[in-house]
Design brief:
The complex is a heterodimer of chains A (359) and B (362). With 359 residues, chain A is an alpha+beta fold. Chain A has 9 helices and 13 strands. Chain A is globular and about 105 Å long. Helices cover 38% and strands 19% of the residues of chain B. A 6-stranded mixed β-sheet of chain B has the order 4-3-5-6-11-10, sandwiched between helices. In chain B, helix 8 crosses helix 13. Classes of the chains: A alpha+beta (359), B alpha/beta (362).
Chain lengths: 359, 362
């Protein structure tokens, strides 16, 4: 038997790395790493009493929602995917809050709560997540809504585009408000809150695939305060819609179908920024089909049109508002445009993806 | 916008319409060659303003529409192969081949990327040395110079992973084919301004002489198009058959010499199949023999392709100006932009798509 000595230099057990710089699968495990992520990033940012309880669901007292009353809820959900995650004028976080707040507001509801679900890709920098969450906080505070429940999942590297965010919004509809895409009446007036195409062109340029630069920034904004200002003037607002993907033309076609009416637009009355116009001319796009994230279409009773328009113009998000058309009779559900030459053409829905011109 | 609004001015449009109305004394059939012009006419409703005895028929000048079905099928076959990044102008992705389109190949896992220029495809090839990058080189004289340039770049850079599926077409032989057809109705042409920017209009002089038709180089804005129509009608009424330039702010007779030189450095003329029309002699360009290494058809053995065209699509006679999209029984029924039976319903320059999109109903 040989004599052998074992020398112990120190602690042998390797301490696991903290992984506080990048998202790893463990952050979605439901264990301590998940808990830490939720505590350090989400809870501190979205801080409010309902979320702070830490239960499986946020509990809400329906009778004590500050200053808002109504028997009906407006509930909407939207999943947000965008490349790149940050672009001039916004980011996926701001998009996730504003997109859902706006959908709720388009029923004339006052948005009060949001829930949010994150799908994070393994490898995502925690600093990026932090920045997105901060942006969500800012947008939620701008929109005066609370984020009261949330969820996080992590998927393997390559299985997602950085991060995806789902948000669900809850709003209260005042009892005397009935706004729907089905309510456009013959003789009504169509008002647009500002210039179209800003968001779509800003994101397209930021994506870098088409190799063009522009000064255009996204118009992402929560529209609920604008809607409140409009409803403060009159209840005779029949339709509200935010023309997001598919642009103004697609939203108007949806309304024409829902209300079974013909909508007529006046060429030249639709505001388009020169830089958006220029990018569209170059790429062969029609601004009518380019996405917006901070604009709304209002269809209102003719006698209230000027009233609503002036309320919009007095609001920072509606300063470029304009009357762009009228609601015709119930004969054919379609959208037509009267050109400045006196001719007319159909304005169809967007068909498939918009692709740049060839020559 | 500067240099656009002036050519969309409603006073000038009305003045041109008035002048055309004063000039025309009988029925004339004019063909606008370019699909971009067709779309402008439909978008602004210029056809609604013209006197009834001016009939506009829509020509074959849509690069997506005339690319042969066989070529689309070859593109689908190459794009489906593993290790290939297939790059293309966006509109080509929706063109139906015999069995599916490039969008469906992408949905099945093919790496298909929309590029705005063939030079972007070169960049992709540089960034992906382990992949074969193929560019779908389609189009008329407008896209040919840049596409040719990409081959010269690839050669200079020694890029061994870049190739082009070439399906280029030329306007003048198509005009010969249309005018030479026994069923031809076209009495005057609006030549495509963009094509003439590159090629000039010297090639059209013998065509105007041979077939006794006026050919007017025409732009794309409402005032440009009406000016082109006015000049063509003046020629017809006076029984003169000249080549005229109504787009002189952009086009001259000789064209862009540097662009033409680039084309001739890379391509040689060849017979070409046009979708719906058939084979037109000398109507295409293919890579020169010494550049055969960049030919995707050689690099990827896609075998014999037997294309299967929809029996309902009549795009061939539409592209020859013999009938209007709304006269097709499938228009707006079996054939829509979402479910196109032929390429003319797909492209932003396709005549059927223009009629559908801007609401010209039967």
């Amino acid at each position: 038997m040989t004599d052998s000595t074992v020398t112990i230099d120190g602690v042998c057990c390797p301490i696991p790395l903290l992984h506080n710089e990048r998202i790893v699968m463990g952050h979605g495990s439901g264990g301590r790493m998940s808990f830490d992520l939720i505590r350090t990033i989400f809870l501190t940012s979205f801080d409010n009493q309902i979320l702070g309880v830490g239960d499986d669901a946020g509990a809400v007292d329906v009778h004590s929602i500050a200053g808002v009353s109504g028997k009906r809820l407006a509930i909407s959900t939207d999943s947000h995917v965008v490349t790149p995650l940050f672009f001039p004028g916004g980011d996926i976080g701001r998009l996730a809050v504003c997109g859902t707040v706006n959908d709720v507001a388009m029923l004339g509801a006052t948005p009060v709560y949001l829930t949010t679900g994150f799908i994070l890709e393994e490898g995502l920098e925690v600093a990026v997540l932090q920045k997105v969450v901060q942006s969500m906080c800012l947008a939620a505070s701008e929109a005066d809504v609370k984020i009261i429940a949330g969820d996080t999942k992590v998927v393997q590297n390559g299985k997602a585009d950085g991060l995806y965010i789902n948000t669900t919004g809850i709003g209260i509809i005042p009892d005397d408000i009935y706004i729907s895409g089905a309510n456009a009446q013959p003789g009504d007036v169509i008002i647009l809150s500002g210039s179209i195409g800003d968001h779509g062109i800003a994101v397209l340029a930021a994506r870098g695939e088409l190799n063009f630069d522009t000064q255009v920034v996204s118009d992402i904004a929560p529209l609920n305060s604008l809607v409140a200002a409009m409803l403060g003037k009159t209840r005779k607002i029949h339709v509200l819609r935010d023309p997001t993907r598919g642009g103004l033309a697609t939203s108007l076609n949806e309304i024409a179908q829902q209300s079974q009416v013909e909508l007529t637009l006046f060429e030249g009355s639709i505001p388009v920024k020169p830089a958006v116009d220029a990018a569209c001319e170059m790429l062969g796009f029609d601004p009518l089909y380019v996405a917006n994230e901070g604009k709304l279409i209002a269809i209102v009773a003719r006698e209230e049109a000027d009233n609503v328009l002036s309320a919009m113009k007095n609001h920072p998000l509606g300063s470029d508002a304009a009357i762009i058309g009228t609601v015709g009779d119930k004969s054919a559900p379609r959208v037509v445009l009267k050109t400045k030459y006196g001719t007319t053409r159909l304005v169809d829905m967007l068909s498939g993806e918009m692709t740049p011109r060839i020559c | 916008m500067k240099f656009l609004e002036e050519y969309r001015d409603s006073t000038l449009v009305q003045a041109a319409i008035d002048e055309i109305s004063r000039t025309v004394s009988q029925h004339w059939v004019l063909m606008e060659i370019c699909g971009g012009q067709t779309h402008s006419i439909m978008k602004y409703g210029l056809d609604q303003l013209l006197p009834e005895n001016i009939e506009l028929v829509h020509g074959p000048g849509c690069p997506v529409c005339v690319t042969s079905l066989e070529m689309i099928d070859k593109a689908l076959a190459i794009a489906s192969q593993p290790g290939v990044i297939f790059t293309s102008y966006g509109d080509m992705l929706r063109v139906p081949g015999s069995y599916g389109d490039l969008f469906s190949v992408r949905a099945s896992g093919g790496d298909i990327r929309v590029v705005y220029s063939s030079l972007d495809a070169i960049k992709i090839a540089q960034e992906n040395p382990d992949k074969q990058v193929v560019f779908f080189g389609i189009g008329f004289e407008t896209t040919a110079p840049a596409n040719a340039m990409s081959v010269l770049h690839a050669q200079k850079l020694g890029l061994e992973n870049y190739s082009m599926l070439v399906s280029h077409v030329r306007v003048p032989p198509a005009m010969h084919a249309i005018l030479g057809s026994p069923s031809n109705r076209v009495q005057g042409f609006l030549a495509a301004g963009h094509v003439c920017t590159v090629m000039g209009y010297w090639e059209y002089l013998p065509i105007a002489q041979k077939y006794q038709v006026p050919i007017v180089v025409t732009g794309f804005e409402p005032v440009d198009i009406l000016q082109g129509i006015l000049v063509a009608i003046q020629e017809l009424e006076q029984k003169t058959y000249n080549v005229q330039n109504a787009y002189s702010r952009v086009v001259n007779q000789a064209g862009n010499q540097a662009a033409q030189n680039t084309i001739h450095q890379v391509f040689v003329e060849c017979d070409q199949k046009w979708r719906g029309i058939g084979l037109i002699p000398n109507s295409g360009w293919r890579l020169k023999p010494e550049l055969k290494d960049f030919d995707a058809e050689r690099r990827f053995n896609v075998g014999e392709i037997t294309p299967q065209e929809s029996t309902l699509c009549i795009s061939g006679i539409i592209l020859q100006g013999l009938t209007k999209p709304v006269d097709c029984p499938a228009f707006g029924r079996q054939c829509t932009p979402e479910h196109p039976l032929g390429a003319t319903m797909v492209s932003s320059e396709g005549a059927c798509a223009a009629y559908y999109r801007y609401g010209r109903s039967r």
